[in-house]
Amino acid sequence: AVVSSSPASLDSRFRALICEEGLLSQLGWAASRAQCWVLVFPPQVLVYELLLGKGFRGAGGRWKPLLSRHQARLKAELARLKVRQGVSRNEDLLEVGSRPSPVSQVPRFVRVNTLKTCCGDAIDYFKRQGFSYQGQASSLEDLRALKGKHFLLDPLLPELLVFPAQTDLHEHPLYLAGHLILQDKASCLPATLLAPPPGSHVIDACAAPGNKTSHLAALLKNQGKIFAFDLDAKRLASMATLLARAGVSCCDLAEVDFLTVSPTDQRYDRVQYILLDPSCSGSGMLSRPLEEQGSGTPSQERLRALAGFQQRALCHALSFPSLRRLVYSTCSLCQEENEDVVRDALQQNPGFRLAPVLPSWPHRGLSTFPGAEHCLRASPETTLTGGFFIAVFERAEVPSSASQAEALAPELAPGPAPKRKRRRKADVQAAGAAAEAACGK
Ligand SMILES: C[S@@+](CC[C@H](N)C(=O)[O-])C[C@H]1O[C@@H](n2cnc3c(N)ncnc32)[C@H](O)[C@@H]1O
After folding, report:
1. Is residue 439 among the annotated active site residues?
2. InterPro entries in the record, alphabetically (predicted)?
3. What is the pLDDT of residue 427?
4. Cα Rg of the chain, angstroms
5. Which letter, b or e, does each residue of 30-43 get, where b requires 16 or more Cβ atoms within 10 Å of its Cβ?
6. Taking the CB of the first residue and of the last residue of the chain, which one, N or C, has fewer CB atoms within 10 A?
């Protein structure tokens, strides 16, 4: 049984660490690979549990006395090995090529759609399905350590649940019913930072397929108005499905070139908030294979064309007369589409400045102009999210650092994490399929 057990059925990290990468021999257990295999398979699970997992926990059978005898030495050797190699985490012992990529470690973020349910009910539903709720995370490390059927509340964004990276919820009844939106954390920031209060009028200038629009509608509690524009009829069609499923009722969708929307049209007299998430190179998108990131940098010509459009769209948006606050975002990592666009727009619109948002966010704009540190960047390595860029503009005469902080405080203050069980039957009716967050058009 030992020899015939398939190596493929073993945990790959364990195989790499204990056998393939020769950790046992590095630990001083001289054995050929074949010997190692025979020697190792049943106890390898135990060694794994001992060194990397949760200990023997009552298992072990006839191997247990042997391993118990060597337990202290194994642990000491592992610790020594890490010191020798100057690393602190077990996974850093692996060859670079066999380490999990940062992209594959980005957790599955799930926004609870407060138009249809509340966090407490969503959490209860998952608990009834055998998931274990760990409360509100206090750091990115908590998110990085998530595994199995554990889940958390995000440390920063309320209503954002976090599951281990490979969790697939595309068939989950709450997702199909529009109670949950599968949306990366970075993509939840634009609406959160725009923070339109209920009753406001908002423009979503490049809106399809609409995850940020549905987030805006949730913040508005469906009170007020969202004017959502997009050029692409097909994307607008899937957006209409997505919004219907999410219970959005405060949105006017229009197949329109945003650059042709007149800022002086009286329909937009009351628009104080604009979200501009224009087409971009998508160089930060997670769905791209890792090899493409960086090496798949868009051509200078494409970047120039994209940045030209982004620049025009941003200046057009800043010309709406009642505008107080605007969020500019891309899922691009390129300075040309991000800091450069923002710098030029500020130069051309001296009535606006950058709002100093989320001072504790670890990844800031590239220091290419004074104030660029107010911009936010995001990446798998630094924030455990997709690659993203955000700048928040506010009208300079609005005495706003205070008012903005007030506006954001309720959104971002880490409120008490839902703990209590509340009884309510969740709606498990399946709805039609729709698009997950999409960018980079
Ligand atoms: C990055 S995607 C927007 C994603 C969307 N905000 C979301 O969160 O689901 C950019 C969108 O801009 C649209 N677009 C491009 N040029 C446009 C224009 N001139 N006016 C309006 N929409 C435009 C594209 O069709 C595309 O759907």
Report:
1. no
2. MeTrfase_RsmB-F_NOP2_cat, MeTrfase_RsmB-F_NOP2_dom, NSUN5_7_fdxn-like, NSUN5_RCM1_N, RCMT, SAM-dependent_MTases_sf
3. 30
4. 25
5. eeeeeebbebbbbb
6. N
- Angstrom CA distances, 341 to 32, 35, 345, 359, 375, stand at 59, 61, 6, 22, 12
How many angstroms separate the alpha carbon of residue 440 from the centre of ligand 1?
A: 9
3-class DSSP state of 394: strand
Q: How many angstroms does the Cα of residue 208 sit away from the middle of ligand 1?
A: 6
- Reported as a pLDDT band with limits 50, 70 and 90, residue 76 is confident
Domains delineated in the chain: 7-100 (no CATH), 103-182+424-438 (3.30.70.1170), 185-408 (3.40.50.150)
Crossing angle of the two packed helices 185-194 and 211-220, in degrees rounded to 10: 40
Annotation-wise, does 232 bind a ligand? no
Give the Cα separation of 223 and 85 in Å (integer): 58
Q: Whose CA is nearest to atom 27 of ligand 1?
A: 208
pLDDT grade for 34, boundaries at 50, 70 and 90? very low
Over the stretch 140-176, which tens digit does the pLDDT of each residue have? 999 999 999 999 999 999 999 999 999 999 999 999 9
> What residues contact 15, with CB distance under 8 A and at least 6 apart?
7
- Residue owning the nearest CA to atom 21 of ligand 1: 230
Q: What is the pLDDT of residue 45?
A: 67
- What pLDDT shows up at residue 51? 75
CA separation for the pair 423, 145 (Å, rounded): 30
Helix (H) or strand (E) holding 230: strand 225-230
pLDDT at 394 over 70: yes
Per-residue model confidence (pLDDT) at position 386: 96
